[in-house]
């Protein structure tokens, strides 16, 4: 027995091991498949359950169609126009431009509209598409008890302003649907989407928590585009899931303000839905501890649970950053007005006073300021990264106030004149650009971020007639043209993160870390503003070139990605669909092909994340509340 047993034992052992290996492999494969599958199923179920909403609430709280700005305009006009004629006008308008909810668009080549398909074949050629006259929509709702319109609103010239380019605008709507549906499928409730890997992206700017950044940032774009079903899903998620209570996230005060507070405020202005006002205040309250500094200049980061705030280690000896603490004014001022609590406005007014009184080297604002000492850090100045939206908010605070905040306009003009003198230059090839300034040395480089300033200069020119008006407009057009050049000098027709000017190159990135494009909106923002102000067809043509380039290079089967190098014919994609692609890029492109009555510039002012806020005294959506709460020193 013994010898027999000893012979068969190794065979049995080998057979046993083989069996176990096969079992492990088969189980593993099954598990992986199940995990992938169950992830998708779970996400779908989550989306579905998050979206289930009680019908009664929907009707009571959303009243989407009735509250849509376009329909309020129509209603107000119908009442104003008396009797049957007004009603017929309203009916005709609705017939001409139905609130169509197109189906999710598929990958290029499957359901791409003919117009786009043809043009993708030859993206240099901009075809002349017949442009239909837009239905008449009054641009100013009845102002009820509001004061009269301030003198000197945004003026437009030209005669083609009332036109919608339906085909191109519809294409932008389809892009929005593609971006949204894929976010919904693979990253619902998370911050952003990774389209290539079909999973969520957790960008560090949102901390490590699931704050639904794409939902909050993109929701007003859905609303403006009339994508009602998607809008409702987002609104329901905010109601059910969005809260900063009981989490210990370290949030960027700036990013949280422009995307989350800004997004909620716009939604409140559009709908009057108290949910958004409550959430905007909830978020802003979590940011308040960051303002507890000796100067009142806030820190960059704040912990939502402990209230502990701090600055970035890399920012010039513990400094706060100009573009961050200087880009809170619009949201905080408006929040005070709709809540009746002056505290928020007081906080940003303190920042304003510090910046007004401090000595400015050569009239310029350095990018870094120490919140403890109130002294400037490194003397680096920029209209791009670290500086940009501070200048934007000076002009826009004045506009938002109905042009009564004269201090803001003065500070804007002083700053822009210094920038014109010390930082704006013309290249040998005749391109206007804004350099960075480091101590006394010009760095002949312009960030993509600074491309918003084309629109900013033009908006400054259009809203006040003074000695600088012509210069502002000339520079605004020049910068916008230069940014367009930075796009068309790249084979992808999309612009790099930064571009340089030297004897050898113009409007071109030189360093590898400057060659990427992350779906940024700034150039299109300037096309939109310049289009509204001049009605020069070239801005729409440039915008359409961009749509074609985005479709060709950035679109994937599961959303939109940035590119690692715009100078390659077939660039690698970065696998991130930024929330600002939905909030800004697609919104500005949509508005570029809309007529002027959609968010007219003398009634709405866009925050730096493209969330439109109403202008006081000029816009019935301002929804000012009576002052009820005393300001408090505590935060
Ligand atoms: C956005 O978050 C805002 O436009 C901000 O002002 C700058 N950066 C991004 C878009 O590029």
Automatic annotation (TrEMBL):
Gene3D superfamilies xref list: 1.50.10.10
Enzyme type, top EC level: hydrolase
SUPFAM superfamilies: Seven-hairpin glycosidases
Active site: 255, 388, 497, 522
Binding site for Ca(2+): 608
GO cellular component: endoplasmic reticulum; Golgi membrane
Compartments reported by the entry: Endomembrane system
Pathway(s) this gene product operates in, as recorded in its UniProt entry: Protein modification; protein glycosylation
Record-linked Pfam families: Glyco_hydro_47 (PF01532)
Record-level Gene Ontology MF annotations: calcium ion binding; mannosyl-oligosaccharide 1,2-alpha-mannosidase activity
Entry's EC annotation: 3.2.1.-
Annotated TM spans: 12-32
Stored InterPro entries: 6hp_glycosidase-like_sf, Glyco_hydro_47, Glycosyl_Hydrolase_47, Seven-hairpin_glycosidases
Reactions the enzyme catalyzes: N(4)-(alpha-D-Man-(1->2)-alpha-D-Man-(1->2)-alpha-D-Man-(1->3)-[alpha-D-Man-(1->2)-alpha-D-Man-(1->3)-[alpha-D-Man-(1->2)-alpha-D-Man-(1->6)]-alpha-D-Man-(1->6)]-beta-D-Man-(1->4)-beta-D-GlcNAc-(1->4)-beta-D-GlcNAc)-L-asparaginyl-[protein] (N-glucan mannose isomer 9A1,2,3B1,2,3) + 4 H2O = N(4)-(alpha-D-Man-(1->3)-[alpha-D-Man-(1->3)-[alpha-D-Man-(1->6)]-alpha-D-Man-(1->6)]-beta-D-Man-(1->4)-beta-D-GlcNAc-(1->4)-beta-D-GlcNAc)-L-asparaginyl-[protein] (N-glucan mannose isomer 5A1,2) + 4 beta-D-mannose; N(4)-(alpha-D-Man-(1->2)-alpha-D-Man-(1->2)-alpha-D-Man-(1->3)-[alpha-D-Man-(1->3)-[alpha-D-Man-(1->2)-alpha-D-Man-(1->6)]-alpha-D-Man-(1->6)]-beta-D-Man-(1->4)-beta-D-GlcNAc-(1->4)-beta-D-GlcNAc)-L-asparaginyl-[protein] (N-glucan mannose isomer 8A1,2,3B1,3) + 3 H2O = N(4)-(alpha-D-Man-(1->3)-[alpha-D-Man-(1->3)-[alpha-D-Man-(1->6)]-alpha-D-Man-(1->6)]-beta-D-Man-(1->4)-beta-D-GlcNAc-(1->4)-beta-D-GlcNAc)-L-asparaginyl-[protein] (N-glucan mannose isomer 5A1,2) + 3 beta-D-mannose
Names of required cofactors: Ca(2+)
UniProt membrane topology term: Single-pass type II membrane protein
Keyword terms of this UniProt record: Calcium, Disulfide bond, Glycosidase, Hydrolase, Membrane, Metal-binding, Signal-anchor, Transmembrane, Transmembrane helix
Disulfide bonds, paired cysteine numbers: 451-483
GO terms of biological process kind: carbohydrate metabolic process
Function according to Swiss-Prot or TrEMBL: Involved in the maturation of Asn-linked oligosaccharides. Progressively trim alpha-1,2-linked mannose residues from Man(9)GlcNAc(2) to produce Man(5)GlcNAc(2).
Family membership noted in the UniProt record: Belongs to the glycosyl hydrolase 47 family.
Protein name stated in the entry: alpha-1,2-Mannosidase
Organism of this sequence: Drosophila kikkawai
Lineage of source species: Eukaryota, Metazoa, Ecdysozoa, Arthropoda, Hexapoda
């Amino acid at each position: 027995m013994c010898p027999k047993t000893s012979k068969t034992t190794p065979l049995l052992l080998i057979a046993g091991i083989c069996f176990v290996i096969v079992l492990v492999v088969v189980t593993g494969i099954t598990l992986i498949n199940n995990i992938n599958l169950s992830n998708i199923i779970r996400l779908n179920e989550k989306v579905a359950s998050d979206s289930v909403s009680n019908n009664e609430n929907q009707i009571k709280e959303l009243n989407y169609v009735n509250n849509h700005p376009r329909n309020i305009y129509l209603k107000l006009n119908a009442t104003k126009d008396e009797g049957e004629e007004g009603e017929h006008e309203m009916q005709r308008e609705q017939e001409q431009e139905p609130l169509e909810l197109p189906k999710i668009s598929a990958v290029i080549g499957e359901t791409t509209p003919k117009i786009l398909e043809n043009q993708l074949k030859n993206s240099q050629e901009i075809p002349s598409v017949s442009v239909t006259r837009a239905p008449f929509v009054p641009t100013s709702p009845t102002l009820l008890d509001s004061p009269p319109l301030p003198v000197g609103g945004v003026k437009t010239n030209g005669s083609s302003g009332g036109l919608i380019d339906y085909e191109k605008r519809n294409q932008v709507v389809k892009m929005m649907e593609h971006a949204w549906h894929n976010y919904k499928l693979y990253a619902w409730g998370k911050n952003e989407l990774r389209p290539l890997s079909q999973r969520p992206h957790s960008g560090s700017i949102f901390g490590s928590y699931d704050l639904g950044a794409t939902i909050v940032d993109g929701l007003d774009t859905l609303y403006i585009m009339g994508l009602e079903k998607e809008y409702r899903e987002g609104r329901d998620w905010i109601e059910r899931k969005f809260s900063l209570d009981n989490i210990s996230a370290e949030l960027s005060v700036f990013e949280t303000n422009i995307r989350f507070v800004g997004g909620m405020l716009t939604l409140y202005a559009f709908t009057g839905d108290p949910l958004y006002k409550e959430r905007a205040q909830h978020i802003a309250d979590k940011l308040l501890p960051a303002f507890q500094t000796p100067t009142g200049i806030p820190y960059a980061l704040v912990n939502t649970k402990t209230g502990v705030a701090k600055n970035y280690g890399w920012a010039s000896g513990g400094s706060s950053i100009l573009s961050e603490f200087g880009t809170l004014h619009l949201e905080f001022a408006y929040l005070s007005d709709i809540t009746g609590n002056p505290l928020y406005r007081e906080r940003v007014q303190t920042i304003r006073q510090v910046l007004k009184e401090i000595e400015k080297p050569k009239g310029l604002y350095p990018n870094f300021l120490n919140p403890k000492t109130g002294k400037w850090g490194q003397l680096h100045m920029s209209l791009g990264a670290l500086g940009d939206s501070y200048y934007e908010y000076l002009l826009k605070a004045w506009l938002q106030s109905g042009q009564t905040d004269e201090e803001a306009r003065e500070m804007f003009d002083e700053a822009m004149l210094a920038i014109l003198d010390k930082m704006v230059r013309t290249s040998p090839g005749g391109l206007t650009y804004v350099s960075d300034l480091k101590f006394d040395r010009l760095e002949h480089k312009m960030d993509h971020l600074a491309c918003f300033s084309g629109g900013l200069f033009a908006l400054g020119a259009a809203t006040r007639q003074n000695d600088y008006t012509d210069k502002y407009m000339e520079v605004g057009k020049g910068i916008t043209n230069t940014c367009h050049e930075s796009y068309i000098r790249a084979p992808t027709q999309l612009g790099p993160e930064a571009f340089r000017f030297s004897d050898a190159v113009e409007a071109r990135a030189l360093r590898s870390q400057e060659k990427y494009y992350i779906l940024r909106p700034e150039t299109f923002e300037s096309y939109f503003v310049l289009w509204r102000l001049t009605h020069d067809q070239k801005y729409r043509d440039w915008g359409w070139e961009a749509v074609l380039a985005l479709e060709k290079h950035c679109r994937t089967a599961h959303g939109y990605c940035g590119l690692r190098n715009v100078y390659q014919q077939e660039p690698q994609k970065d696998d991130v669909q930024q929330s600002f692609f939905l909030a800004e890029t697609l919104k500005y492109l949509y508005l570029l092909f809309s007529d002027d009555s959609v968010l007219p510039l003398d009634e709405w002012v866009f925050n730096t994340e493209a969330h439109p806020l109403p202008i006081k005294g000029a816009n019935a959506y301002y929804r000012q509340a009576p002052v009820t709460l005393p300001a408090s020193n505590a935060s």
